Amino acid sequence: MISAAVPLSCAGGGDFSLIHFFLLSDNMASSEDSATEKLTAPDRVTPKGDTSIFNSMAFRGIAYQVLLAAFVILGGLYLYINVNANLERQGIATGWSFFNENAGFDIGESPIEYDSEDSYGFALWVGVLNTLRVAFVGIILATILGVFMGIARTSRNWLLSKVANVYVEICRNVPVVLHVLFWATVVRFLPHPKQAITPFDGAFLMNRGIVFPIPNEHPAYIWVGVAFVLGVIGAIFLGRWAQRWREMTGQYIPTFLWGCVIVIGLPLAAWLVQGAPLTWNVPALRGFNFQGGMALSPEYAALVVGVTVYTAAFIAEIVRAGIQSVPHGQIEAARALGLRPRFIMHYVTMPQALRVIVPPTASQYLSLTKNSSLGVLIGYPDLVNIGNTTLNQTGQAVEAIAIMMIVYLSISLAISTFMNLYNRLVAIKER
Amino acid sequence: MNEQQPADAAADPLGDETVIQLIDVNKWYGNFQALRDVNVSVKRGERVVVCGPSGSGKSTMIRCINRLEAHQKGQIIVDGIELTDNLKNIEAIRSEVGMVFQSFNLFPHMQVIDNLTLAPMLVRKMPKADAEAIAMKYLERVQIPEQAYKYPGQLSGGQQQRVAIARSLCMQPRIMLFDEPTSALDPEMIKEVLDVMVELADEGMTMMVVTHEMGFAKTVADTMIFMDDAEIVEIAKPDVFFTNPESERTQLFLNQILTH
Ligand SMILES: Nc1ncnc2c1ncn2[C@@H]1O[C@H](COP(=O)(O)OP(=O)(O)O)[C@@H](O)[C@H]1O
Ligand SMILES: [Mg+2]
């Protein structure tokens, strides 16, 4: 005990005096500098003792970075040589030529046309798209559910806040793997196609997934889409204009209402003008399965629901913490000025809460995206799943893993960049 | 609210228009009674100073007047409108009654000027240019027009509280409530805030001020109220209140606070 304690305390003391020494020497240098300026001849500019370049802050900054870079490069080089040697010994050729070779395996579902004659490269691309399909929908759903649950937790309605509370506690304390497995099991226990549950006419819920009707394609829909885009642009301009109008005249224009009217009304008008074409592609039972409509596989549904429910619990906590981080005095002051609750939320609470909410929400989006790789567990053909198959068939472990890492890194960086931009948009300056 | 009182205002400063009236007001927080049978009436232009030990219900009383807290029994009538849970009435009264808090409560994410123009624009539907003109006028009144484009966090406590007063004044209220406006300030900043309040009082603003600054009370108060243990113990003119209070509890409190 004692013999251990002595060197420890020595080391601590040594550290301290080292820091102390640097601080002191800095102070001495600066005070001596100013002294020279005032008192003595200008040629006496080199105070003795600590003129060494090693005491320069700038020099040290650069030196540390050079050292770190050297470490990283040497480490990388070592790994590279090592791996190469091992691969050579096992007779595995490195390289990307497998990319154009025939994949030879089927993929359960794909947003684009794929068959086993296609190349490994194309198969991996299908994996990327499948991963993005889960991440994109999961992020949107988790945000909606999380914000709702977060606000519900701060609600004065006892039942609502308790329900949200229980949801958050259960969902964030169960590993995400179990969430995904749980929903995969739930989907598996749904009835067979013949006894499919029908939540509304034309939609079916069963152990083969979910199918629901979609409108048949029609050339008029292009113009409906154009009208929608124009509507969104129009609504943005309306918002700008209403803001300026309010500043000029004090008159308030319900922009949200009119925005909705434009965004919905314009495409609706475009559709009506072209004779309101609408036929539904309704799924129907043919033999053992449904044909037509839009189908979501059970794996996709389970994966999306699993990662959504899990991530939303964390987002709910973030939103709650954000709202509660705004001091109550802020809301009271706004009330005392006669502001309506809606205005208080918009101008006082939200801007201050968002500052707390946005950065951790961004990292939740990142972890949702990465958690979508759990699809491999339930047979969803995401990037990891297909990358894994590729790896097993080709033996190109380094390349396959490198591709997966690069793709996840790119997706994550894209999300961070977007969220950083958003954060800068809503970020508020104080002092 | 901007008309000056006549020069001989000191003789008989008050009209007979009652602008705040509390009748048998009772309030509970759960089982704890915070106000017991409180009766107060304040005339237009009257300056009322409320004092009393901590926890006696002073804040609760003035927070009931703009319904930041709801009372459970009795009547509160402000500017002819009775306070019930009618939202329209509450909004109407809040836009006529300014309130200044101990902790300033400026909006930290807005520049001073935006703090001042927010409510006039959103509640009074005032064009931005007009709201800014009024804001600058009141910033000059509290003597910090040069801080208009700073954020609250860049100001000293005294400056922040003066901005908070200006923010309330921008709504051009008929009544001002102050809840210990100088209690969170360093001693050297108390005076700059009290000076602004004295000036406001001199202009004839109806004011209800919770404070322990007895110097201020002696200068401006028309009426002193002493509260203890959820009750109003004494209401008196300042000359009587400070020299010859009726209640022993008032006496005791004054001894404590004045000898400090
Ligand atoms: N929101 C609240 N919930 C429960 N009790 C409260 C609340 N606000 C104040 N009280 C209690 O009511 C009493 C009066 O408080 P307050 O009006 O703030 O006193 P004062 O301003 O005179 O110091 C105190 O005992 C305080 O603890
Ligand atoms: Mg108080």
Outline the structure in words.
The complex is a heterodimer of chains A (431) and B (260). Chain A is mainly alpha-helical and 431 residues long. Chain A folds into three domains: 53-89; 124-213 and 292-426, MetI-like (MetI-like fold), CATH 1.10.3720.10; 217-278. Chain A is built from 13 helices and seven strands. Chain A has helices at 2-39, 57-90, 120-153, 158-172, 176-188, 220-249, 255-273, 298-324, 328-336, 341-371, 375-378, 383-394, 397-426; strands at 204-206, 209-212, 214-215, 280-281, 284-286, 289-291, 294-296. In chain A, the strands form three sheets. Chain A has a three-stranded antiparallel sheet with strand order 1-2-7. Chain A has a two-stranded antiparallel ribbon with strand order 3-4. In chain A, a hairpin with a 2-residue loop joins strand 1 and strand 2 (209-212). In chain A, helix 3 packs antiparallel against helix 4 (158-172) and helix 3 (120-153) packs across helix 8. The longest helix of chain A has 38 residues, at 2-39. Chain B has 260 residues and is α/β, with parallel strands linked by helices. Helices cover 37% and strands 24% of the residues of chain B. Chain B contains nine helices and ten strands. Chain B has helices at 58-65, 87-96, 112-122, 128-141, 157-169, 187-202, 214-220, 238-243, 248-259; strands spanning 18-29, 32-43, 47-51, 73-78, 81-82, 97-100, 175-179, 206-210, 223-228, 231-236. In chain B, the strands form two sheets. Chain B has a six-stranded mixed sheet, sandwiched between helices. In chain B, strands 2-1-4-5 form a four-stranded antiparallel sheet, covered by helices on one side. In chain B, strand 1 and strand 2 (32-43) form a beta hairpin. In chain B, helix 5 packs parallel to helix 6 (187-202). The chains are: A mainly alpha (431), B alpha/beta (260). Chains A and B meet through helix 6, helix 9 and helix 10 of A and helix 2, strand 6, helix 3, helix 4 and helix 5 of B. Magnesium ion is lined by residues 58-59, 179-180 of chain B.
